[in-house]
Amino acid sequence: MLKVFLSNLPADWTHRNEGGDTWSPYDVLGHLIHGEKTDWIVRAEIILNDSANKEFKSFDRYAQFRNSKRKKLEQLLSEFEKLRAENLSKLKAMNISTADLSRKGIHPQLGIVTLKQLLSTWVTHDLTHIAQISRVMAKQYKDEVGPWVEYIGILNK
Amino acid sequence: MLKVFLSNLPADWTHRNEGGDTWSPYDVLGHLIHGEKTDWIVRAEIILNDSANKEFKSFDRYAQFRNSKRKKLEQLLSEFEKLRAENLSKLKAMNISTADLSRKGIHPQLGIVTLKQLLSTWVTHDLTHIAQISRVMAKQYKDEVGPWVEYIGILNK
């Protein structure tokens, strides 16, 4: 879906943020890629494997500022698509049962969490970042919409 | 993009709202369809045609509650896709020049607006409703994410 959403857009639309150290759509995409590499499936594997150590590593919220360097948005879109497809295959191969959903891992900040909560958060995290990308892109049109600005609540947040 | 986003999802996810008289993703889709039929291109035509009357009709923000009745989400997705494709063809055929962008119409509540502002609002309006759909869908997972709720700002709005 992100490919349909963001492909072929001008860079000055996808690289702008909401000011200060907020994230652009390009930054968000790098963050989602890092999640595919180090977060969701990796943590699901920790919960489901036979090891006694159930502690997750901390997630690096700033990894994209190193990893995306010199990459074009289109590259990131392809990278995300590939990683997500691989991870959904891995998820399917896990053959997760209802009982598995209650199995637990230890989040470095939040403490004990279940596999069900982890997978629910994966979905919700996608949605929150789609909302963010849409909002950030909408805001670049704040001046262009003229008097309509008062009808579009998101522009005033 | 909405087809990729919303197709084949369970109805109890796409038909739930944020409480009270807020809109579900299904409601938003009906609203976008009504916009394709009566708002953006219709108003662009009013601005660009030779008639002296440049006043737009009021947009009905509640039309979807009549028009979507008994329709499935998949039907609405196809209807929107078709209407949007037709409207983009019409837009292309208008061969809008830079000078045209300054031409004016009269919005029933906002007064004088330009074609440029109308077209910018069309894009921004899409984005604000994509953000809304994502937020409303994310909120249905508020309980499921467990302790992660504190990390996902959108769930607490």
Description:
The structure is a homodimer of 157-residue chains. The first copy, chain A, is mainly alpha-helical and 157 residues long. Chain A has helices at residues 2-6, 11-14, 25-38, 40-48, 64-67, 73-93, 115-139, and strands spanning 104-107, 111-114. Chain A has a two-stranded antiparallel sheet with strand order 1-2. The longest helix of chain A has 25 residues, at 115-139. The two termini of chain A are 25 Å apart. Chain A binds chain B through residues 1, 4-5, 107, 110-111, 113-114, 116-117, 120-121, 123-125, 127-128, 130-132, 134-135, 137-138, 141, 144-148, 150-155, and chain B through 1, 4-5, 107, 110-111, 113-114, 116-117, 120-121, 123-125, 127-128, 130-132, 134-135, 137-138, 141, 144-148, 150-155.
Keywords:
homodimer; 157 residues; mainly alpha; 52% helix; elongated
Query: What structural category characterises the helix and strand content of chain A?
Result: mainly alpha
Q: Gyration radius of chain A, to the nearest Å?
A: 18 Å
* Largest sheet, strands/sense/barrel of chain A: 2 strands, antiparallel
Q: Quote the beta fraction of chain A.
A: 5-15%
In the sheet with the most strands of chain A, the strands line up as 1-2
In helices, the fraction of residues of chain A equals 40-55%
Query: Secondary-structure element sequence of chain A?
Result: HHHHHHEEH
Number of helices of chain A: 7
Beta strands of chain A, count = 2
Oligomer: homodimer
Q: What form of chain A results from the Cα inertia axes?
A: elongated
Q: How far is it from the N-terminal to the C-terminal residue of chain A, by CA?
A: 25 Å
Q: Give the largest interface.
A: A-B, 36 and 36 residues
**What is the average per-residue confidence, as pLDDT of chain A, rounded to a whole number?**
96
